[in-house]
Amino acid sequence: MKQNPLSFQLKLKPEDFLPATEEEKQSQIVMRESVSFWKDGMRRLVKNKVAMVSLVVIVLVMIFSFIVPAFYPYNYREQFKGANHLAPMEYSAEEQARIDAGEKVFPHIFGTDKMGRDYAIRVMMGSRISLVVGLIATAIILVIGSIYGSVAAFFGGWVDLVMMRIVDIIYTIPDILLIVLLSFALKEPLYNLKEVPGFGWVGVVGENLISIFIVFALLYWVGMARMVRSQILTLKESEYVTAARALGVSNKKIIRRHLLTNCIGTLIVTTTLQIPSSIFTESFLSFLGMGVAVPLPSLGSLASDALNGINTYPYLLFIPSALISLIILSFNLFGDGLRDAFDPKLKH
């Protein structure tokens, strides 16, 4: 029977009702492979070339700051007679005489400063101080901010209202003024760090460095607290939190095991982006003379000392400034890569 060409009726054949083959079934599968949150995030992070290059730079800076000084022949406090303001790869008259006598002398790669100290080892130790301060300060911010923000969001009501008003008040406190006041209040160094064989680490830590940590603990955690609070406000309405409450799980365990654990990706991203901010703050304060105590170097204090001879010895200012910029840029780009990889809102 011939079918009307204007009819919408389908013309089917008996073979159309046969079971589909395995190849035909597989061709209909459009779902991607099921992977975990961390595996999916790491896979997308590895594909981010800018983030991976930044990670390599961070690792190289870590090696430069923490491992190379163990094998470097000079100490950051050692002064060489007649070696003031040597140019990079230049020798003093005494060292040149030793070389002429057949002795091997390691060159001053970045030259020397006004006191005849090898500048390369001082840059290494300065970058180590900046990194250590940035990492410790960020850890302080992470602990205080995550605990404070999660407690405020979990309990809500008047508890959240009071705690967030305290955060608003802390935002109004000028951090530089507080650092200056603490620097004058802490007249004596609170502790010393002993020498570590091979690392030459790190002499006396002055009161200004302690004041920096105190200020980070008092002021800079408020941004982290607000971020954690916004995450917990959403997560606490989830079914698994309701089930945990019904089972009699304590509030402390719910916050630690269920809420903070489920926003760990955001915490990692925020913490990574906080590290360059902490490093910049320390370098800025050291540049103003409110950082680490002499003779301990910091990248900010090295740049500050080099200002007096900027016209004659510009490399003394360029080297620490370039290293600060490189560290901060690398951490920022790596943090952006982590955000793109682990933020669920940015998945595509």
Q: How would you describe what is shown here?
A:
Helix 3 (49-71) crosses helix 14 (315-342), helix 5 (119-155) packs across helix 11 and helix 12 (264-287) packs antiparallel against helix 14 (315-342). The protein has helices spanning 22-27, 37-47, 49-71, 93-100, 119-155, 157-171, 175-185, 207-218, 222-235, 239-246, 251-262, 264-287, 299-305, 315-342, and strands at 191-192, 204-205. The protein contains 14 helices and two strands; from the N terminus they run αααααααββααααααα. A two-stranded antiparallel sheet has the order 1-2. The model is unreliable at 187-207 (pLDDT under 50). The protein is an all-alpha fold and 348 residues long.
